[in-house]
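[Automated response] Your request has been received and processed.

Submitted sequence:
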Amino acid sequence: MIHDACPIIHALRKVEVAKKIHIRTFGCQMNVHDSERMLGAMLGLGWEATDEAADADLIVVNTCSVREKAYHKVRSALGALKPLSDPRRVRRPIIVVAGCVARQEGERWLDHCPHIDIVLGPDAVSRLATHVGTVMDGGPPVVDVAFDEGRARDFLTGPGRATGPTAYVTVMKGCSHHCTFCIVPSVRGPMRHRPSVDIIHEVQCMVDDGAREITLLGQTVNAWCEPGSSPDEGRDFAWLLGRLDRVAGLARLRYTSPHPIYVTDALVMAHASLASLCEHVHLPVQSGSDRILRRMGRRHDRDHYLRVTDALRDTRPGFCLSTDLIVGFPGETSGDHSMTLDLVERVGFDTFFSFMYSERPGTPAVKLVDDVEPEVKRTRLHELHALGDRLTAARYSADVGRVVQVLVEGESRSGGGQLSGRTRTNRIVNFHPSGLAPTPGDLVEVTLTDAMPHCLLGES
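Generated structure:
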């Protein structure tokens, strides 16, 4: 729910025709979160959301540059908006490119797409309204892609309000690890950590607004530590989880995406002891080969990853893991690929996201000349997907007949009175309620009756 910022804004809505904003988002959950905050800020100023770009007075394309495919999708999407900028149109929208690709290309966007009015880096999304005002007043195109300083106010990009049973809270941003394939440090900046008092306050506000589940966000989220504190004080990520576990009304707590090297003994113990902390972690590994991990600059090896995942699985029955994998990194041999397949089977991931390696401009891996042939990449990706499908089917089928707790998120896509939600292990469950239908945010006991490729079916 978005609340009025003040009575004056409410009055302005009564006397002015509201303008419309359309946002299209590419990429990860952090981009989705940034889009929600930009939308929330503009709604708070009297704007209205629209699903149709042609009806909008303001169009924001929030971008991702982690993978080449996403980058080209963004270029295509922005190109498709050019007809809307025709000066002969009665309604010529302000067009904004935001996010990682905005930072990556900077002023070059004004050459690529002259119809763009604002180029907004990830750290500048809080200034969207200011720049829109400048353009509306007849000002020139705006390019704002600088990194912020990581001050407390730099983490807030709009009203911190929940709009449903699940919500997201940023605890840190940026990354300082410089994996050789990754462009994130270049487009998101170095690691900066948000004060715990602000995180706890925002989580409490979200819960007070009706959120039952909170996901903490950060590029290397479990690297968080209290700004200005010393290691001896122990104010690390596990400590933060302990504080958030005390928030009244919080039913579930998650985080994404952690780095294996920051999975400490204290974090493992948090999973064993904190009631709200869910039995699921998405822990990117990228490869099962130590040789490739070294080329990637990942700072963990295969054995370390296996020790960490074993420790997490031992915390609670039914603990689930998911991961990210890159296929065909430069120099990857069939033996390296076999090591990845073996690790996937050894860990027994619930699900995983896998991608063929593609060059990202400015990353060290671009200089590696021994790239893998595209056809070999496709074959290896197919083998990985086939293994993943088999593992997921086996794990989902093993759950049929069990009773699980589901957080209701809303109606399923199938309709017909079927509802959808997630288990604590992050599995999607579509179910038919018996009797009075629960509402979004309710926690219900569901008996699982069947397993589908990407979800479970059940009855409450």
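Summary generated for your ticket: The chain is about 35% helix and 20% strand. The radius of gyration is 23 Å.
If you did not submit this request, please reply to this message.
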